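My hope is that you will study the record closing this message with an eye to the fold:
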Amino acid sequence: MTLADRSRAAGAFRLPVVWLFAGMLVGYFVLISRVMFSANNVMMFDEYVPTLTPIRTDLHITLEHAGMLFTARTPYYPEVPIPYPPLGLLLMRPLAALPFDYAYRVVALATVAAFLFLVVAAGRLARRPASSPELWVIAAVALISYPFQFELERGQWNVLATALAIAAVWLFQSSASSGRRATAYALMVAAVHLKLFPAAFAIGFWRRDWPWRRNLLHIIGVGVLTAAALAALGLDLMSGFLSIVIPYSQSPYVWFGNHSIAAFAQLAGMSPWPGAVLLVALGLAAFWRIVRSGDGSDPLVIAAVTLVTFLLPPTSHDYKLSMLPFAMALVFGWLAASPHVVRLPVGIMAPLGFAMSAAYHVALVP
């Protein structure tokens, strides 16, 4: 091999898409070993999504509760607890007016569209073009992954809520127009009331061109606005919601598909402190990155916040991992765009990128 050939080979190993593909092979072999190498020498493909019959159960229950708004019945009762705020149910109410099959199709197609938007948004936040190959390798694998199929099977809307929150951050950071900022606030409030965890993405409103006091007061103001919206449909509904969500968060449903720190500690019979240390580390990493870049929409900040939304809520089922590709697209987009990383030796970059990709792709396998 000539010196030029070795140089070209080393250059290929610097490409994040190469690390991604190599790590993807690890996840593929983990999956295929369960399909091809069963103990009885019969090719098997187990049902890997914990399906319910009929499917779309979560959406069906939520739309039933949304239909109870403005009637004599309350949507908040302990027999079928629904942990979504009144405003979130109001946003879902138009779907309740449709035949359920059509409502599900709307949610499923919107989920796919929202996922593709998140891939493009990750590229924009990481300052990578939409045609970057690492983004679409991540997207292609994620669309057929276990978490995304689980999200569609239950008729969940975690991806939709995340897309609204990221759209709010993107809109807020890209324009000084008061009208666009008001739209960003509305999108963030909607995201939080559809799924509570997007509140963490409000850190993305931290602007590079504002002093830290103004940023801090602004984010607190967004939090107060979001909390005040709990009473938008009346104090009775707000009280009913709180009577459900507080016990729900204190006694979450614990199973192997709940990947929160609280559930893991309970299943493993261990203290939650190691997980708490991990959360603190992610928080400090995000804070350090904001201090360095001055930008709450920095890709590493948003990626760290996304991981926090997986681990912190007591109930965090596997379908929420459908947002993990968004975090990975942010990280690998940043790796591809960062001049500091490009200058690192291949011997450091390639193993690190491969290890992250392998861990990520294995997480997408049930």
In short: Residues 249 and 319 are 18 Å apart (CA to CA). The radius of gyration is 22 Å. Residues 3-13 have pLDDT under 50 and may be disordered.
